[in-house]
Design brief:
Layout lengths: L14 H18 L4 E6 L14 E7 L2 E6 L9 E3 L3 H5 L1 H10 L1
Antiparallel strand pairs: 1-2, 1-4, 2-3
Length: 103
């Protein structure tokens, strides 16, 4: 496989190339995505989520200053931005009431 230097047909990727690319890309995303916000991504080609290999959609989000990836079972279009909530926020009726008023 050659994902890091597609212009060089003789080059074979090294796992360190992938790790470095992922770390740099993760850092760039953390500068672009606001805290507790994510973006929906469709998994295509060789991409898969190791914890859930059957997942077809993920959300890439920033929470507590870190970029994370989680499977998503909602049918939102790729590229949609979503707001991330903790389980405590999801279960707090006061937060839900405030959100419902904004709608």
């Amino acid at each position: 496989m050659n994902y890091t230097r597609p212009y060089d047909e003789e080059y074979k990727d090294d796992p360190q190339d992938w790790l470095n690319g992922a770390l740099i890309f993760g850092r760039a995303l953390s500068l672009l995505i606001e805290e507790d916000t994510g973006i929906v991504v469709d998994l295509k080609g060789d991409a898969q989520l190791s914890s859930q290999p059957d997942a077809k959609k993920v959300v890439v989000y920033r929470s507590q200053g870190m970029i994370s990836i989680d499977s998503m079972n909602r049918d939102l279009p790729e590229g949609s931005f979503v707001k991330i909530q903790s389980e405590d926020e999801q279960n707090d009726p006061n937060i839900q009431q405030r959100k419902n008023r904004k709608l």
